[in-house]
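[Q] Does anyone have a clean structure-token version of this?
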Amino acid sequence: MNFWETKKLSEMTTEEWESLCDNCGKCCLHKLEDEDTGDIYFTSVVCNLIDLDTCRCTRYTERTQLVPECLDLKQHDFAEYNWLPATCAYRLLSDGEDLPSWHPLLSKSAESVQDAGVSISSYAMKESEIDDLEDHIIEWLE
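[A] Here you go.
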């Protein structure tokens, strides 16, 4: 059996935890919250630290110091994170779901995320390129 099938998220080593990230970049998209309803809306805008070719943070180890709004997911309770994309391995596993077949741990290919159309690399733009986040709200069919 695979480690993600036998361990809770809280029991995983740092290496196991990090390997669950498929580098889709969706969690790095800026989100807006409706103050009246609490609904979360994703935008197509990402932090300036992300490399849009790899969908990886260029300053990963220091990201939470450089960008105070950036969260270290391992430090939080997943019950709070219904805002994570439905395709996120952390959310799927915390909900008792399986990893999708395109996940790199199953496909053995980092390109499978982009091939499956899950990566943000084809549509995301950096925050320095836009004026108003509300003009960039997106909706996924998940």
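[Q] Thanks! Anything notable?
[A] The two ends are 28 Å apart (CA to CA).
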